[in-house]
């Protein structure tokens, strides 16, 4: 009888300990409020936003399918998380506001890390590196940046290229995406465009635009995935996956597939 009572007391003690541990975990979860990874797992999908007008990174093909380097990265991240990927195209000018208001889980659309953006969102490690590039028409007489003073320069609203353009003393024209900026440049409605160097090279290689690079990149950029400040668990999980994709060559292979060059190493 004594032995049974002792076992019973031990069992009760274990139940109490487990209950206290569970309560502690629940309390910690309530204190941090971070159920972001659990939220994605429970939903069975992760939503990433991008402009959809930034070839070859994210754009619509002839079959109206959203494709590109960014899209393949999204698919791979979702697969390694064990969920589906759902794209949420959005205009770049309001893409951070959409993230902060909870319209989607993250932004994976070639967003550069900047101090200003880091004040309102958290970034993963970079998944590729690029640079800001000025493009002009193939037959343009403009030979250097200084000659852009007073000229019309197109760029996408809400991009870091606005800072580059502000120092040119040029007539800045804002557009929704780079499909529009490059088309306007090609048609002679702009004197120059500031965009990502890879985007510019891709446009030249497509044979659809009579444009060229004006000199070297203005500066380099680290490109990463953005999450809400409070979604640390989800960001850390994606961070680990991106590091794995760097280490196992997945990012390099996807870069070569879409860009014919590896831009995933600094």
Characteristic terms for this protein:
ten-stranded mixed sheet; single chain; 266 residues; alpha/beta; 2 domains; three-stranded antiparallel sheet; D-Maltodextrin-Binding Protein, domain 2
Architecture overview:
By secondary structure, the chain is an alpha/beta fold. It has 10 helices and 13 strands. It has helices at 2-32, 36-43, 69-81, 95-100, 115-118, 161-166, 178-186, 197-206, 232-247, 250-259; strands spanning 45-50, 53-54, 58-60, 66-67, 84-89, 106-112, 122-123, 128-137, 152-156, 171-175, 192-196, 211-213, 219-227. Strands 1, 5, 6, 7, 8, 9, 10, 11, 12 and 13 form a 10-stranded mixed beta sheet that branches. Strands 2-3-4 form a 3-stranded antiparallel beta sheet. β2 (53-54) and β3 (58-60) form a beta hairpin. α2 (36-43) packs across α9. The longest helix is centred in the N-terminal third of the chain and has 31 residues, at 2-32. Residues 1-30 have low confidence and may be disordered.
Secondary-structure blueprint:
Layout (H helix, E strand, L loop, with lengths): L1 H31 L3 H8 L1 E6 L2 E2 L3 E3 L5 E2 L1 H13 L2 E6 L5 H6 L5 E7 L2 H4 L3 E2 L4 E10 L14 E5 L4 H6 L4 E5 L2 H9 L5 E5 H10 L4 E3 L5 E9 L4 H16 L2 H10 L7
Parallel strand pairs: 1-5, 1-6, 9-10, 9-11
Antiparallel strand pairs: 2-3, 3-4, 6-13, 7-13, 8-11, 8-12, 8-13
Helix pairs in contact: 2-9
């Amino acid at each position: 009888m004594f032995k049974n009572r002792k076992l019973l007391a031990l069992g009760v003690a274990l139940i109490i300990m487990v209950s206290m541990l569970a309560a502690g975990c629940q309390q910690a979860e309530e204190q941090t409020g971070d159920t972001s990874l659990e939220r994605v797992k429970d939903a069975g999908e992760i939503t990433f936003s991008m402009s959809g007008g930034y070839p070859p990174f994210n754009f619509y093909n002839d079959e109206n399918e959203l494709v590109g380097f960014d899209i393949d990265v999204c698919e791979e991240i979702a697969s390694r998380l064990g969920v589906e990927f759902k794209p949420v195209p959005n205009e770049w000018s309001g893409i951070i506001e959409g993230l902060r208001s909870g319209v989607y889980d993250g932004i994976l659309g070639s967003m550069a890390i900047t101090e200003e953006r880091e004040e309102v969102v958290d970034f993963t490690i970079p998944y590729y590196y690029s640079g800001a590039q000025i493009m002009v028409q193939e037959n343009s007489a403009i030979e250097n940046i200084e000659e852009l003073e007073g000229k019309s320069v197109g760029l996408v609203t809400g991009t870091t290229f606005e800072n580059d353009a502000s120092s040119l003393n040029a007539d800045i024209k804002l557009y929704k995406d780079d499909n529009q900026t490059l088309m306007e440049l090609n048609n002679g409605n702009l004197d120059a465009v500031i965009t990502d160097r890879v985007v510019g090279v891709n446009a030249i290689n497509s044979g659809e635009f009579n444009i060229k690079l004006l000199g070297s990149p203005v500066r380099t950029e680290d490109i990463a995935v953005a999450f809400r400040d409070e979604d640390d668990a989800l960001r850390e999980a994606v961070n680990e996956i991106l590091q794995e994709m760097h280490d196992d060559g997945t990012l390099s292979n996807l870069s070569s597939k879409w860009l014919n060059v590896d831009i995933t190493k600094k």
